[in-house]
Amino acid sequence: MKTIALIAHDKKKTEMLEFVDHHKDVLSQYDLIATRTTGTLINEKFHLNVKTLMSGPLGGDQQIGALVATEKVDLVIFLRDPLTSQPHEPDITALLRICDVHNIPLATNRRSAHILVKWLVTEQNK
Ligand SMILES: O=C(CO)COP(=O)(O)O
Protein backbone atom coordinates (compact mmCIF):
# COMPACT_ATOMS: atom_id res chain seq x y z
CA MET A 1 0.00 0.00 0.00
CA LYS A 2 1.69 3.19 -1.08
CA THR A 3 -0.36 5.93 -2.67
CA ILE A 4 -3.57 7.44 -1.35
CA ALA A 5 -5.74 9.81 -3.39
CA LEU A 6 -7.67 12.50 -1.51
CA ILE A 7 -10.56 14.35 -3.17
CA ALA A 8 -13.33 16.48 -1.70
CA HIS A 9 -16.12 18.44 -3.25
CA ASP A 10 -16.42 22.05 -2.15
CA LYS A 11 -19.01 21.47 0.56
CA LYS A 12 -16.90 18.61 1.92
CA LYS A 13 -13.57 20.40 2.06
CA THR A 14 -13.87 21.34 5.71
CA GLU A 15 -14.68 17.72 6.49
CA MET A 16 -11.63 16.63 4.50
CA LEU A 17 -9.39 19.00 6.46
CA GLU A 18 -10.81 17.68 9.73
CA PHE A 19 -10.30 14.12 8.50
CA VAL A 20 -6.69 14.79 7.51
CA ASP A 21 -6.03 16.55 10.81
CA HIS A 22 -7.34 13.52 12.68
CA HIS A 23 -5.29 11.02 10.67
CA LYS A 24 -2.23 13.01 9.65
CA ASP A 25 0.20 10.72 11.47
CA VAL A 26 -0.97 7.74 9.43
CA LEU A 27 -1.43 9.65 6.18
CA SER A 28 2.07 11.12 6.39
CA GLN A 29 3.47 7.61 5.92
CA TYR A 30 2.01 7.37 2.40
CA ASP A 31 2.43 9.13 -0.90
CA LEU A 32 -0.54 11.45 -1.14
CA ILE A 33 -2.10 12.82 -4.30
CA ALA A 34 -5.16 15.03 -4.64
CA THR A 35 -7.19 17.14 -6.99
CA ARG A 36 -5.87 20.69 -7.10
CA THR A 37 -8.03 22.62 -4.65
CA THR A 38 -8.31 19.78 -2.16
CA GLY A 39 -4.56 19.16 -2.19
CA THR A 40 -3.66 22.84 -1.99
CA LEU A 41 -5.86 23.31 1.08
CA ILE A 42 -4.33 20.26 2.76
CA ASN A 43 -0.79 21.40 1.98
CA GLU A 44 -1.46 24.90 3.30
CA LYS A 45 -2.73 23.55 6.56
CA PHE A 46 -0.62 20.45 7.19
CA HIS A 47 2.50 20.54 4.99
CA LEU A 48 1.96 16.92 4.07
CA ASN A 49 3.57 17.30 0.67
CA VAL A 50 0.46 16.24 -1.22
CA LYS A 51 1.04 16.09 -4.96
CA THR A 52 -1.70 18.04 -6.68
CA LEU A 53 -3.22 17.22 -10.04
CA MET A 54 -5.82 19.22 -12.00
CA SER A 55 -8.91 20.53 -10.28
CA GLY A 56 -11.81 18.08 -10.48
CA PRO A 57 -13.93 20.05 -12.97
CA LEU A 58 -10.85 20.52 -15.18
CA GLY A 59 -9.98 16.83 -15.38
CA GLY A 60 -8.50 15.96 -11.99
CA ASP A 61 -10.89 13.08 -11.40
CA GLN A 62 -9.92 11.67 -14.78
CA GLN A 63 -6.23 11.99 -13.93
CA ILE A 64 -6.76 10.08 -10.69
CA GLY A 65 -8.88 7.56 -12.60
CA ALA A 66 -6.00 7.00 -15.03
CA LEU A 67 -3.65 6.38 -12.10
CA VAL A 68 -6.13 3.92 -10.61
CA ALA A 69 -6.41 2.17 -13.99
CA THR A 70 -2.64 1.80 -14.17
CA GLU A 71 -2.54 0.57 -10.57
CA LYS A 72 -0.57 3.52 -9.25
CA VAL A 73 -3.13 4.40 -6.60
CA ASP A 74 -3.87 2.00 -3.78
CA LEU A 75 -6.69 3.71 -1.94
CA VAL A 76 -9.11 6.55 -2.74
CA ILE A 77 -10.84 8.82 -0.27
CA PHE A 78 -13.38 10.89 -2.14
CA LEU A 79 -15.65 12.97 0.08
CA ARG A 80 -18.44 13.51 -2.40
CA ASP A 81 -21.25 16.00 -2.11
CA PRO A 82 -24.31 13.98 -3.02
CA LEU A 83 -26.64 16.97 -2.72
CA THR A 84 -25.11 19.30 -5.30
CA SER A 85 -24.99 18.58 -9.00
CA GLN A 86 -21.48 18.82 -10.46
CA PRO A 87 -20.63 19.89 -14.01
CA HIS A 88 -18.16 17.03 -14.26
CA GLU A 89 -20.52 14.31 -13.00
CA PRO A 90 -19.45 11.89 -15.79
CA ASP A 91 -15.83 12.15 -14.61
CA ILE A 92 -16.88 11.43 -11.04
CA THR A 93 -18.90 8.39 -12.08
CA ALA A 94 -15.97 7.19 -14.17
CA LEU A 95 -13.60 7.45 -11.21
CA LEU A 96 -15.92 5.47 -8.95
CA ARG A 97 -16.33 2.87 -11.68
CA ILE A 98 -12.63 2.43 -12.34
CA CYS A 99 -12.01 1.91 -8.61
CA ASP A 100 -14.49 -0.96 -8.75
CA VAL A 101 -12.95 -2.33 -11.94
CA HIS A 102 -9.53 -2.51 -10.24
CA ASN A 103 -10.84 -3.43 -6.81
CA ILE A 104 -9.32 -0.33 -5.24
CA PRO A 105 -10.65 0.52 -1.76
CA LEU A 106 -12.79 3.65 -2.03
CA ALA A 107 -14.45 5.70 0.70
CA THR A 108 -17.02 8.26 -0.37
CA ASN A 109 -17.95 9.58 3.04
CA ARG A 110 -16.18 10.46 6.24
CA ARG A 111 -17.13 7.44 8.29
CA SER A 112 -16.07 4.95 5.66
CA ALA A 113 -12.87 6.98 5.23
CA HIS A 114 -12.17 6.58 8.97
CA ILE A 115 -12.76 2.85 8.68
CA LEU A 116 -10.30 2.57 5.79
CA VAL A 117 -7.62 4.43 7.73
CA LYS A 118 -8.16 2.11 10.70
CA TRP A 119 -7.77 -0.81 8.31
CA LEU A 120 -4.49 0.71 7.04
CA VAL A 121 -3.17 0.80 10.60
CA THR A 122 -4.22 -2.82 11.15
CA GLU A 123 -2.42 -3.85 7.97
CA GLN A 124 0.71 -1.97 9.10
CA ASN A 125 0.76 -3.84 12.39
CA LYS A 126 0.49 -7.31 10.82
O1 LIG B 1 -14.29 18.44 -8.06
C1 LIG B 1 -13.62 17.68 -7.40
C2 LIG B 1 -13.84 16.24 -7.46
O2 LIG B 1 -14.86 15.85 -8.34
C3 LIG B 1 -12.54 18.19 -6.53
O3 LIG B 1 -11.72 19.09 -7.20
P1 LIG B 1 -10.92 20.19 -6.38
O4 LIG B 1 -10.15 19.48 -5.32
O5 LIG B 1 -10.03 20.89 -7.35
O6 LIG B 1 -11.96 21.12 -5.81
Which descriptors would you attach to this protein?
51% helix, Rossmann fold, 126 residues, alpha/beta, 5-stranded parallel β-sheet, binds 1,3-dihydroxyacetonephosphate
Write the layout of secondary structure elements.
Blueprint: E1 3-8, H1 13-27, E2 31-34, H2 36-46, E3 51-52, H3 60-69, E4 75-79, H4 89-101, E5 106-107, H5 110-124
Bound molecules: 1,3-dihydroxyacetonephosphate.
1,3-dihydroxyacetonephosphate is lined by residues 7, 9, 35-38, 55-57, 60-61, 92.
Structure overview:
The chain has 126 residues and is α/β, with parallel strands linked by helices. It has a single domain, classed as Methylglyoxal synthase-like domain (Rossmann fold, 3-Layer(aba) Sandwich), CATH 3.40.50. The chain contains five helices and five strands; from the N terminus they run βαβαβαβαβα. The chain has helices at residues 13-27, 36-46, 60-69, 89-101, 110-124, and strands at 3-8, 31-34, 51-52, 75-79, 106-107. The protein has a five-stranded parallel beta sheet, with helices on both faces. β4, α4 and β5 (106-107) form a beta-alpha-beta unit. α1 (13-27) crosses α2 (36-46), α1 (13-27) packs parallel to α5 and α3 (60-69) runs parallel beside α4 (89-101). The protein is globular and about 40 Å long. The model has no long low-confidence stretch (mean pLDDT 97). Bound molecules: 1,3-dihydroxyacetonephosphate (13P).
- Summed over residues and divided by their number, the pLDDT gives a mean of 97
Low-pLDDT ranges: none
CATH topology: Rossmann fold
Number of domains: 1
- What is the strand content? 15-25%
Strand segment tally: 5
Order of helices and strands: EHEHEHEHEH
Radius of gyration: 13 Å
Summing up helix and strand content along with how strands pair, one would put the structural category as alpha/beta
Ions, cofactors and other bound molecules: 1,3-dihydroxyacetonephosphate
Largest sheet descriptor: 5 strands, parallel
What is the CATH C level class, in words? Alpha Beta
- For the biggest β-sheet, the strand order reads 3-2-1-4-5
Oligomer: single chain
CATH architecture: 3-Layer(aba) Sandwich
Question: Kindly, what is the distance between the CA atoms of the first and last residues, rounded to a whole number of angstroms?
Answer: 13 Å
CATH superfamily label: Methylglyoxal synthase-like domain
Globally, the shape reads globular
Number of helices: 5
Organism: Propionispira arboris
GO molecular function, one term: methylglyoxal synthase activity
Domain MGS-like: 1-126
Binding site for substrate: 9, 13, 55-56, 88
